Amino acid sequence: MAVSLAPEERAALEAVADRIIPEDGNGPGAALGALERDAPAAFALLRTLVLEGAFGDPAHGGNADGAGWWLLGYPGPRHVLTLEDQEIVAL
After folding, report:
1. Is the dihedral of CA 13, 17, 18, 19 positive or negative?
2. Do the domain assignments include residue 82?
3. Number of neighbours of residue 70 by Cβ within 10 angstroms
4. If we measure between CA atoms, which residue out of 44, 60, 47 comes closest to residue 21?
5. Of 80, 81, 76, the residue nearest 56 (C-alpha)
6. What's the whole-model pTM score?
7. Residues 55 and 47: beta-carbon distance below 8 Å
8. Domain contains 62
9. Could you tell me if residue 45 is inside a domain?
10. 90 CA to centre of own chain
11. What is the pLDDT of residues 16-60, one digit of tens each?
């Protein structure tokens, strides 16, 4: 389900996402510390939604072109398994 956001709502959401998953890789910004401390449930929900959008299956509308998976080195789901993939290995 697509949700329409006003331009200022979209800008705020993008700012939150940029702090949770910063573009430069230096970690979350200081702007979210107060939210995490004062409203931990709201912060946890925002964090969860950002991570789902960044690393979820692109078929559901996030993780454009598998970019999040690429960052993790995950090739994505395979739809065809070879006989070797299906072999049970004794431990």
Report:
1. positive
2. no
3. 12
4. 47
5. 76
6. 0.62
7. no
8. yes
9. yes
10. 35
11. 888 787 766 665 555 777 888 899 999 899 889 888 988 999 988
